[in-house]
Amino acid sequence: MTAVHVPGTPIIEDGRLVSTSPATGAEAGRFPVASVADVEATVARARAAAPWWAGLGFTGRRERLLRWRALLAKRIEELAELVHVEGGKPIADAIVEIVTAIEHVDWAARNARRVLGPRRVRSRLVLAEFSAHLEYQPHGVVGVIGPWNYPVFTPIGSVAYALAAGNSVVLKPSEYTPAVGQWLVDTFAEVVDEQPVLSAVHGLGDVGAALCRSGVDKVAFTGSTATGRKVMAACAESLTPVLIEAGGKDAMIVDADADLDAAADAAVWGALTNAGQTCIGIERVYAVEPVFDAFVDKVVQRAGRLTVGADGADIGPITMPSQLDVIRRHIDDALARGGRAVLGGAEAVQPPYVRPTVLVDVPEDSAAVREETFGPTLTINRVRDADEAVTLANALSYGLGGSVFGRRRAVAVARRLRSGMASVNSALTFAGMSTLPFGGVGDSGFGRIHGEDGLREFARAKAITRRRARSLLPAMTFDRTDADVARLVKVVRMMYGR
Ligand code: NDP
């Protein structure tokens, strides 16, 4: 019996990875599967290209990256169509994703010199005879492993910053979105055709594992927490530094003085955009008792209006067919434990689609509250006050983003969320703010992409001291005398002993 191919599930045919649309099964592209030797050869070519790219300096790289940015902007519709065909994402969502990515390319290109370039830093009195110099030098070759859910925005969050910092990059796109990954590489090669500064290797998870073991100087991984652990273990063998951007279970808190219409709009969009397949998607809401019922009504009204389907709909298919079982399990578990579906429910899963589902009063120990669902579902639970909401929001091992709606206490509440990011009176907006770092805590990973921290993540600090005068208190020499040491003690007591 021949196995039936489920649309969207990648297959390997004659050594090629065949990518198909989860909605229609149409082929999006086929790409040679890399062997371990191929991965090593690609990394070797990237290593040879790295000094040339670094040698262009901040100005040369900025000019190339800005040309790439312009090309992405000019061909945004072409790329959005590819994202739509390969992953099923609605065109409008794809456009928003690409715009955000373009913004990051622009910012990284324009700010790399300011953030990473050589500068003098202040000397301290104890070593006043030395000047201090700091710069951030590229690692060399960075391996970027990306997920499928934001196949442009997510890799670019690492790729653009790593390139701006002067590294060459080898990208391993998800097996579900190789065509988009290859498109990014090909368009970059149109503006940088001299050397393979950005290249791709395709295949399944083992290709990602081979990239971790290939001798790259840093790995930037975005994907699930479980795979992140494997990536870290593989990188540990060679002490390769690693950045982990992993999963989440982000919460929104709706306080008593919130604008409920705005909160409902943000909750629905934050939970259901990209069919809920968003690492920073809102998966849980904690609404305080006095506004709970009104808020739920508004969410149901808005979410109930959304259309589901292949083309022109608000919500597209679930990209990874196996995720449908997870979504179904979470809904079933929530209902079995006493939660109520005020929209959608057990019948909402209709492969490859899931209709918007809003679950209320879901027990805190159920899978729908504790595990990443990655589908167009939302739990809304009632809480006494914002303090209880913070406690529940912080109860999980994930800590990626979060959102708070309210007036008086909203920023204070946002600061108390155990997460790398939060948005007040909006949802997910921190992801598009290229001046801000992006990343999580706990099971959501560590390290930062975006912003100044994101640039520094792809460079190593190089510290240089330079003598500018004779030492008045010679301490770091065997020529020092007892009197020198005694004077040193006296000075330190004077400076710090009070
Ligand atoms: P996976 O963890 O399944 O895969 C991520 C990438 O790792 C893919 O390219 C995958 O390749 C590769 N991979 C798989 N096994 C290995 C291995 N042993 N060694 C090295 N690489 C490997 O995640 P998904 O692609 O399913 O993405 C969804 C997850 O990503 C969600 O948990 C989501 O929250 C998270 N995410 C986090 C973001 C963040 O910034 N924090 C942003 C976006 C998503 P292949 O696809 O071929 O298996």
UniProtKB/TrEMBL annotation:
A Pfam cross-reference name: Aldedh
UniProtKB keywords: Oxidoreductase
Family under the similarity heading: Belongs to the aldehyde dehydrogenase family.
Active-site annotation: E245
Aldehyde dehydrogenase domain mapped to chain residues: 17-464
Protein's recorded name: Aldehyde dehydrogenase
Annotated InterPro entries: Ald_DH/histidinol_DH (IPR016161), Ald_DH_C (IPR016163), Ald_DH_CS_CYS (IPR016160), Ald_DH_CS_GLU (IPR029510), Ald_DH_N (IPR016162), Aldehyde_DH_dom (IPR015590), Aldehyde_DH_NAD(P) (IPR012394)
SUPFAM superfamilies in the record: ALDH-like
